[in-house]
Amino acid sequence: MVDPKGSSSWLKSLNISDIFVWKDHGEYGALVAKIISILVPVFFSALFFGKKKGKIRGVPVDVGGEAGYAVRNARRAELVEIPWEGATTMAHLFEQSCNKHTRNRFLGTRKLIQREFVTSSDGRKFEKFHLGDYEWETYGEVFVRVSNFASGLLKLGHNIDSRVAIFSDARPEWRIALQGCFRQNVTVVTIYASLGEDALIHSLNETETSTLICDSRQLKKLDAIRSKLTSIQNIIYFEDDSKEDTFSGSSSSWTISSFSEVEKLGKEGPVEPSLPSKNAIAVIMYTSGSTGLPKGVMITHGNMVATTAAVMTVIPNLGSKDVYLAYLPLDHVFEMVAESVMLLAGCAIGYGSPLTLSDASNKIKKGTKGDATALKPTLLTAGPAILDRFRDGLVKKVEEKGGLVRNLFHFAYKRRLAAVKGSWLGAWGLEKLVWDTIILKQIRTALGGQLRFMLCGGAPLSGDHNI
Ligand SMILES: *[C@@H]1O[C@H](CO)[C@@H](O)[C@H](O)[C@H]1NC(C)=O
Ligand SMILES: *[C@@H]1O[C@H](CO)[C@@H](O)[C@H](O)[C@H]1NC(C)=O
Q: What is the domain partition of the chain in residue ranges?
C-alpha cells in the first residue's frame, strides 16, 4: 500500500465479508477459534495497538485534491516499491525467486484418499473427505510448469492481446496459470466465485475475455449460459480427483482443453516469454461492489509488486523455513498478495479450504487430519469477520464447559495477554509455562501448533479482541 491511488483501489477490493464460506460453519470455527482468539489479540495488540491511544499514526497528505492521511512503515525512510533490484513485475519476481529457491518446497496439496457420505439423524447427507499428506512441488518444478503453460496458452491459439479469466477455487494450478499468463504479458481477470451467473457474464463481456480457466465442475454451468459468453473462444479446465463431473462437450465453437493438455502443448512447442513492464495491468479483479454489477479493479504489476514488497517488511524473519496455509479464495486480493509474499520469500504454500481446515471441520472425515494439523503452518491469513467468528466460537465453547475450565481459561488468557502487551507483571517464565501446558497448548495444536504470525486485512479489526 504505497501508492495512494493504487492503495485505494486495493482497499476497495478488500471486502472480507465476501468470504461466504465461513458463514455457515461454526463448528470448525470453534476449534480454530481457540487458538486464534489467543494469538491474534496478542499479535495485533503488539503490532498495531501497542502504542499510546489516541495517537494519529498517519502523515497528512493531499489525496488527489482532498486532505487525507498516508500511513507508512516507520522503519523505512523511502517508499518500498520493489523487494530487490530487477523485480519490477510479478513475472520477474517469480522467475528470480524460482532461481533462488529452486529446491525449496513451493506448492503442496493433499490427494483425496476417500470420499464418503454420512447421513445425519435428520436425514441430510454430508460429504466427508479423507485426505492424504501434503505432496509438494519445488520452486524449480513449478517454474517449468509455468513456462510450459505460458507456451501452451499461445499454442492453443490464445490471442496475446486479449484477456484470460480464472474462475475457480484456489489450488496450485491457479497460481501456475496466473504466473503463466504474466510470463506472456497477458492480463488476468479474476471473478469472485460467489458472484453468480450475471456477474460472470458481465465481467467476461466487459473485459472481452477470450480464454476462461475454471475447474471442471463449472463446465456444465458454462454450457448453460454459452449463448451469452460471446467473447469466449477457449476453455481450459482444471482436472479433478472426482470423475463425476466430467463434461460431455456438446459445444463446438469453444476449444475445450484440460490444464495438463495445455502444459503438454507448451512442453512440446516452447514459445519465448514476453515479460510485462511495470505499468502493464496484471489483473482485473471483479469484486462484489456494494451496488449494481461488480466492478473490475485494475491492478498493475507495479502495484502488486510494491504491496508484496511492503507486506514482506512487516513479517519478522520471513524465510524459506516458513509454511503458509492457503485456504482463502485466490480471487481475493488479500490472498493473492499474501501468497505473492510467500513466493517472494521462498516459503512453502500448502493449499487447504475453509471446510477442511481443522480436524473438526465439516468436510473432514472423523479421525482423519484437517489441513492445519497435516501442514503445521507457521503463517496464516484471516479477516476481521473470521477472527470475530473464531473468538465467538471459542467463547461459546469455553462458556459451555463452565466452572473451572472457564475460570482457568479466562485467567490464563488475561495473564498472558498482559505479558504480551508488555507488562512485566503479566505471566512470564514458570507461570507462562504452566498456562501454556495446561490451557493454551491445546488451543494451539488445533492449528498445527507451529503458528507464529497472522496476516490480517480487509477491514479494521474490532477493538474488542479481548474476551
Ligand atoms: C457486452 O458488452 C457490449 C458492449 O461492450 C454490450 O453491447 C452487450 O450488450 C454486452 N452483452 C452482454 C451479454 O452483457
Ligand atoms: C504488456 O501489455 C500491455 C497491455 O496490458 C502493453 O501496454 C505493454 O506494452 C505490454 N508490454 C510489453 C513489454 O510487451
A: 24-52+352-467, 91-302
Minimum CA distance residue for ligand 1 atom 14: 202
Ligand 1 centroid to residue 320 C-alpha, Å? 47
Residues in the chain: 467
Mutate to test the pocket of ligand 2, among 209, 272, 277 (most ligand atoms within 8 A of CB): 277
Please state, in angstroms and rounded to a whole number, the distance separating the CA atoms of residues 326 and 334. 11
What ligand 2 atom has the least distance to the C-alpha of 281? 5
Strand 209-215 relative to strand 255-258: parallel, antiparallel, unpaired?
unpaired
231 ligand 1 Cβ < 6 A: no
Report how far ligand 2's centroid is from the alpha carbon of 280 (Å): 5
Got the DSSP string for 386-406?
HHHHHHHHHHHHHHHH-HHHH
Expressed in angstroms and rounded, the spacing between residue 228 Cα and the centre of ligand 1 is: 9
Task: Give the separation between CA 381 and CA 384, rounded to whole angstroms.
Answer: 10
Residue nearest to atom 5 of ligand 1 (CA): 206
Say how many Å lie between the CA of residue 146 and the centre of ligand 2. Answer: 19
Nearest CA, atom 14, ligand 2: 276
**DSSP secondary structure code for residue 194 in this structure:** G
Q: From atom 5 of ligand 2, which residue's Cα is the shortest distance away?
A: 280
Nearest CA to ligand 2 atom 6: 280
Torsion over CA: 242, 349, 40, 444 (sign): positive
Q: What's the rounded Cα separation, in Å, for the pair 159 and 233?
A: 10
From the options 3.40.50.12780, 3.40.50.10610, 3.10.150.10, 3.40.640.10, give the CATH code of 91-302: 3.40.50.12780
Sequential pLDDT tens for the chain (467 residues): 333 333 333 333 333 333 333 334 445 555 555 555 555 555 554 554 444 445 566 777 777 777 877 776 667 777 788 888 888 999 999 999 999 999 999 999 999 888 888 888 888 888 899 999 999 999 999 999 999 999 999 999 998 889 999 998 889 999 999 999 999 999 999 988 777 788 889 999 999 999 999 988 888 888 888 888 889 999 999 988 665 555 555 556 788 999 999 999 999 999 999 999 999 999 999 987 667 788 899 999 999 999 999 888 888 888 889 999 998 888 778 888 899 999 999 999 999 988 888 787 788 888 888 898 899 999 988 777 766 766 776 777 778 877 887 888 888 888 878 877 777 777 777 777 777 777 777 777 777 778 888 777 666 666 554 43
pTM above 0.85, yes or no: no
